[in-house]
Design brief:
Radius of gyration of chain A: 32 Å
Oligomer: heterodimer
Number of helices of chain A: 14
CATH class of chain B: Alpha Beta
Radius of gyration of chain B: 18 Å
Order of helices and strands of chain B: EEEHEEHEHHHEHEHEEH
Order of helices and strands of chain A: HHEHEHEEHEHEHEEEEEHEEHEHHHHH
Helix content of chain B: 25-40%
Largest interface: A-B, 22 and 24 residues
Largest sheet of chain A: 6 strands, mixed, barrel
Shape of chain B: globular
Distance between the termini of chain A: 26 Å
Number of domains of chain A: 2
Number of domains of chain B: 1
Number of strands of chain A: 14
Number of strands of chain B: 10
Structural class of chain B: alpha/beta
Structural class of chain A: alpha+beta
Distance between the termini of chain B: 25 Å
Largest sheet of chain B: 6 strands, mixed
């Protein structure tokens, strides 16, 4: 008897007992469903981290020098207190880095705060993300200005009160009017609008378009930080291959400026997108090991259920097995028939689980900021796992069926 | 003289029932030639069923020899016996023993599946035997959609599809009314006329009368082995013609 006929036979059997078959594979369905959902979300997060998040927070090939790390989910308050005791980063640090770097690079400072913007017509936009930055920030960040222009170097140096608005902010403040050349007030100080950014989209549900950029030495700088202090210094080597060298340079320069002895640890943070990625990679690795592990437990339970159902099914069909044996079925034929049935059942469960998992992942994506990406590899793994569970669960019932004595089996009711 | 279909020598079968050994067969010697039509009779407990299981290769004897169509089968294992059953024996059971969810056609195809016959030939041969037993128009019906007589015809078709050396029928009319029984026995007569060797296990004398030879078992041994009156009549007619 060939495999295809076995599958056909198994499908007939499953069709004849739909409800029982469904309950038999419920464990497998649930296990695979969760596996696919979680893996989809993790993979989606991963793609998001690689393509958007790390690039947005840190920028590609960009070194971020700051007092404390951007990404540190440490819950130890001592760690945080030690961060707060560190000296702040200053304009002079950025200037020193710019002077002493051994590789060609763009250097920019960046400081943030939140605040309200008021247009000349009295329209107010709240909770705008205010950034006081150097002119080169736009080049480092690859942020495009859609209308108008960025800051010039003289404006930057002199701290002229000009402002570049996010697309959404400009829209809310001025509607369909051309914002270029108009005035907005930030904490009572007027700024002249010189540009509007291209739309950026959102990050974890937060809009990246409700923003305002002004030169770091303009009055905006003093609004977001004390005089002379900046939140971060961004260093982007013109040649991506110089990233590691630039990183070492920055570290050396800062250690000298902070007069650290060789035994003392850094009292500043230097990060690149790689740090964010490696942090994320750790989380991902744990999830990708722990979750399939948990799912395996579900599948083992699912397999035991299938085994029991198959044992019942084999017992119920003792007479059928007797008939088949009387007509010439060898042990192997009966064995294969039961194994194929068990594997088909479990495989079907895995496929249903994958289907529900995909739907669930889409639902998660729709109702939460978590993105989802279906991983074909994991669908393949699920199918394989489903089949293996079925085959393993079928071994014992199949052996029982194959060993039946035809005389006894034919006498069964 | 051609090889007999069945030849047994001192066939014995013991069962262990707790500490007691039951001697179901105590040495049976029988020879059944090709195209014989033999009825096995005997009261319950006579070893009739045990004998049938051994002859049908469903079970193995405790001791003794058994040649089926010249092949010694007494010492074969499970899978070899399965192959022998598949190739040499066609079973017809009292309770039909059809697969309830399969069509008549699929039921008849079953022995061919286990014989490894290809799909096209399988279908062709199954259709052919079903037409032979008069069910050419019922092939797609499930057993539950067929009458008792029709079910038994499907079973006969299934028994014949592998062209067995021996048709082994165990109380084939036991679950049928008298009219249908007559029909089935007529079919058996026809098959015998066509050259089929038939072994019929029954406890009804009028069914046994269809055979040409009656073997009666009692307490695990053959107590009588004689031609039926029908055979005698036919032989008489024959000798009369010769004489």
């Amino acid at each position: 008897m060939n495999l295809l006929e076995g599958v056909k036979l198994a499908l007939g059997q499953i069709r004849a007992q739909k409800l029982k078959s469904f309950f038999a594979v419920l464990g497998v369905i649930i296990g695979v469903m969760f596996l696919i959902t979680v893996v989809s979300v993790v993979e989606g997060m991963n793609r998001y981290m690689e393509e958007d998040f790390a690039g947005t927070i840190y920028g590609l090939n960009t070194i971020t020098l700051a007092r404390d790390p951007e990404i540190d989910f440490s819950s130890d308050p001592d760690v945080w207190r030690s961060y707060w005791r560190r000296p702040r980063i200053r304009f002079q640090d950025a200037d020193a880095v710019r002077r002493a770097l051994t590789v060609p690079a763009l250097v920019a400072v960046e400081s943030f705060s939140g605040g309200n913007l008021v247009s000349e017509h009295g329209v107010e936009v709240q909770n705008v993300w205010l950034t006081a930055a150097s002119a080169d920030l736009f080049r480092i960040r690859d942020m495009d200005i859609e209308r108008g222009r960025g800051f010039t170097a003289p404006e930057d140096r002199a701290g002229v009160p000009v402002v570049i608005l996010g697309a959404e902010t400009a829209e809310m403040l001025f509607g369909r009017l051309d914002p270029i050349g108009r005035t907005v007030k930030v904490r009572g100080i007027p700024f002249r609008v010189i540009g509007v950014m291209k739309k950026q989209g959102s990050l974890f549900g937060m809009s990246m378009d409700n923003r305002a950029f002004a030169p770091a030495r303009s009055p905006m700088g003093r609004m977001v930080n004390p005089q002379g202090i900046v939140d971060r210094v961004l260093i982007k080597p013109l040649n991506g291959a110089d990233l590691d060298q630039a990183k070492m340079d920055v570290e050396a320069i800062m250690r000298v400026r902070h007069k650290l002895r060789p035994t003392e640890p850094n009292d500043f943070s230097i990060e690149t997108a790689d740090e964010a990625m490696s942090f994320w990679e750790n989380i991902r690795r744990i999830l990708m090991v722990a979750f399939p592990g948990l799912v395996s437990i579900a599948l083992v339970v699912g397999g035991i259920v299938i085994m029991n159902i198959m044992l019942v099914s084999v017992t119920e069909r003792t007479r059928e097995i007797g008939i088949r044996k009387a007509l010439g079925a060898k042990r192997r034929d009966i064995h294969i028939q039961v194994l194929v049935e068990s594997a088909t059942l479990s495989l079907l469960g895995a496929c249903i689980g994958i289907g529900i998992g995909i739907v669930l992942a889409q639902v998660v994506q729709a109702i939460s900021p978590l993105p989802a990406a279906i991983a074909p590899l994991w669908m393949g793994i699920s199918v394989l796992m489903g089949m293996s569970v079925g085959v393993i669960a079928g071994i014992y019932p199949a052996a029982r069926a194959a060993r039946m004595d035809p005389v006894v089996a034919l006498r069964a009711e | 003289m051609s090889t007999p279909v069945i030849r047994t020598e001192n066939l014995r079968k013991d069962y262990q029932l707790g500490s007691e050994t039951v001697h179901a067969l105590r040495g049976v010697d029988i020879v059944i030639e090709r195209n014989e039509y033999v009825a096995i009779m005997g009261p319950s407990g006579s070893g009739k069923s045990t004998f049938m299981n051994l002859i049908g290769c469903l079970d193995t004897p405790t001791s003794g020899e058994y040649w089926l169509d010249g092949t010694p089968v007494a010492g074969l294992d499970d899978d070899e016996l399965a192959r022998i059953r598949n190739q040499y024996i066609g079973f017809v059971f009292q309770t039909f023993n059809l697969l309830p969810r399969a069509s008549a056609l699929h039921n008849v195809e079953l022995p061919l599946i286990y014989a490894g016959v290809g799909k096209a030939e399988r279908r062709e041969r199954a259709v052919e035997v079903l037409q032979k037993v008069g069910l050419g128009d019922r092939m797609e019906h499930k057993p539950s959609e067929l009458s008792g007589g029709q079910r038994q015809r499907v079973a006969v078709a299934r028994a014949l599809v592998n062209r067995p050396s021996l048709l082994l029928a165990d109380e084939p009319t036991g679950n049928l009314d008298s009219k249908t029984s007559t029909e089935i026995m007529a079919l058996f007569d026809e098959l015998h006329t066509g050259g089929q060797t038939i072994l019929l296990v029954t406890h009804e004398h009028d069914i046994a009368e269809h055979a040409h030879r009656t073997v009666t078992l009692r307490d695990g041994v053959i107590s009588s082995d004689e031609p039926t009156s029908r055979a005698l009549a036919m032989a008489g007619a024959g000798s009369a013609r010769v004489g």
